[in-house]
Design brief:
12 strands, alpha/beta, six-stranded parallel beta sheet, 10 helices, Rossmann fold, six-stranded mixed beta sheet, about 35% helix
Length: about 260
């Protein structure tokens, strides 16, 4: 049996084991996906252990996506452009870092028609993938992060066709936009990253938890708000990661059906 792990802190909320293990079972693959709660001081040791012959690789989640970039032997082009790794693939004794968040987020954004004004909340590894996609798709983007320096750094790091994101203070994130994207971890513990602010016409929350985050639940109760919850991005980034690990097409509908709702 080969193993795949989710490395992060925390990880107990993750829906990933359900969808990957359902896919392995459906295809008769002798693999197992499990959770490893890893603090920052242990990350290098745990990533190094993936070079063992029993590991296929790993997913990487909050707060380790930027650090993982420096711990692998090779970085795929898109992961290098984004500056974050969320998927590690073992090739012999070498570890290759990929970013499947961008693909997953772009598929989730299929529900958003045309170029829009977008407020992006967050400046971590997931937000980097989101901004990479948003600018490439032609959206006009504003970034708000609880730490202003992080937002400034993120905005400076990405440009597409001469377009860059504009930074706004967290306290001023009530600006008028068409789409709000939550790429923070707010929502894991009952928070709403928009507080009591009015909702735009489209709400995208990349935090995937069973039942939806408080922001997703509030948006679903509102009138005329399109809601894209974290399960869409999770599903499609998982499909890409599955194919990188196994080399076979992922059973998309099996994985979709396995998502806890």
């Amino acid at each position: 049996m080969s193993e795949v792990f989710l490395l992060g802190h925390p990880v107990s909320h993750s829906l990933s084991p359900a969808i990957h293990n359902a896919a392995f079972k459906a295809l008769g693959l002798p693999h197992r996906y499990s959770l490893r709660d890893v603090t920052a001081d242990k990350l290098a040791e745990v990533v190094g252990s993936l070079r063992g012959e029993t590991a296929l690789g790993a997913n990487v989640t909050v707060p380790h996506k930027l650090a993982a970039l420096r711990l692998v032997d090779e970085v795929a082009d898109e992961a290098r452009a984004i500056g974050a790794v969320n998927t590690i693939v073992r090739r012999g004794s070498r570890l290759v870092g990929h970013n499947t968040d961008a693909y997953g987020f772009e598929r989730a954004m299929d529900a958003v028609d045309g170029a829009r004004r977008v407020l992006l909340l967050g400046a971590g590894g997931a937000a980097r993938a989101c901004l990479h996609v948003l600018l490439r798709l032609g959206h006009e983007v504003w970034i708000a992060n609880r730490t202003r320096a992080g937002a400034d750094e993120l905005a400076a790091a990405f440009e597409s066709s001469g377009r860059r994101a504009t930074v706004v203070d967290w306290a001023r994130r009530s600006i008028e936009v068409d789409v709000a994207v939550n790429a923070t971890s707010l929502g894991l513990h009952g928070e709403d990253p928009l507080g009591d602010l009015p909702l735009p016409g489209v709400v995208v929350d990349i935090v995937a938890i069973a039942g939806g985050t408080p922001l997703v639940r509030r948006a679903r109760q509102a009138q005329d708000v399109t809601v894209v919850d974290g399960s869409e991005m999770l599903l499609h980034q998982a499909v890409r990661a599955f194919e990188l690990w196994t080399g076979v097409p992922a059973p998309l509908e099996v994985m979709r059906a396995a998502l806890p709702r």
